[in-house]
Amino acid sequence: MFYDHIMDWYYDHRTFRLIWAATWETLYMVGVAGLIGFMIGIPMGVILHITKKGGLTENRLVNLVLGAIVNIGRSVPFLVLMVAIIPFTTLLIGKFIGTTAAIVPLTVGAIPFIARLVESALVEVPTGLIEAAQSMGARPMQIITKVLLPEALPSIVNTITITLVTLVSYSAMAGTVGGGGLGDVAMRYGYQRYQPDIMFITVVLLVIVVQIIQMVGDRVAARVDHR
Question: Quick check: 8 pLDDT over 90?
């Protein structure tokens, strides 16, 4: 009886450490991929918006090329993307399996997604504000930083929220092919070893992470919305 209690405690303690580590791995993947994705995707979305026909700095060639890259990136399923860029991931990280390695395809998958959402957010800015700024002699960069981005900030915050939620889902898929995190635990223990309790816990934790991201994102968006 005493031995059974010791083994139960050991199993519960080991499971807790496993789930805890996997949760932080998921947050690490989502956080780093999201940060890099926003640093590249937001400027890319701005360029898409200002180079389109009738934009601040209309450039059909740049818009066409960049738009094609974004469309290609969005059209490739994430699992296919992970496999397709294995050489690139290996070149950057030195391996293609593991939590850090999974950040590469997560980031590559997030960038075109962010770019299109940011472009859509900027479209919502009233053209009257842009014309008023132009009539006062504002340069394109001033219009971008003083008019476009501040006015579209609530929508951009929503874009960040949607992207982070999507990255949580992507990270779970990455875990099923050796990317680590909660997806990896769910696959190795919940599915392969058929431990439904661990599968249930991982699903609950993923839902909780998504709910927290959505709640924080909604509150920030409401706070920065002065319309």
Answer: no
The one-character DSSP state at 55 is S
Q: Is 129 exposed, middle or buried (0-12, 13-18, 19+ CB in 10 A)?
A: middle
| C-beta of residue 182 within 8 angstroms of C-beta of residue 208 | no
Answer whether 5's CB lies under 8 Å from 135's CB: no
- Rounded to 10°, the helix 149-175/196-224 angle is 170
Q: Establish if 170 belongs to a structural domain.
A: yes
Instruction: Report residue 154 CA to chain centroid gap.
Output: 17
Whether the CB-CB separation of 20 and 14 falls below 8 Å is answered with no
Residue labelled with tokens 């309790």? 197
Q: State the Rg of the chain over Cα.
A: 22
Q: How many CB atoms lie within 10 A of CB 200?
A: 12
- 195-203 mean pLDDT: 84
Instruction: Write the pLDDT tens digit of every residue in 136-184.
Output: 888 888 888 888 988 899 999 999 999 999 999 898 888 777 778 888 8
CATH number at residue 201: 1.10.3720.10
Number of domains in the chain: 1
Judge whether 1 lies within some domain. no
Range of the domain at 155: 18-224
* Spatial separation of the C-alpha atoms in residues 72 and 76, rounded to whole Å: 7
Q: Tell me the whole-structure pTM to 2 decimals.
A: 0.87
pLDDT tens digit string along 26-59? 999 999 999 999 999 999 999 999 998 888 888 8
Residue 6 lies in a domain: no
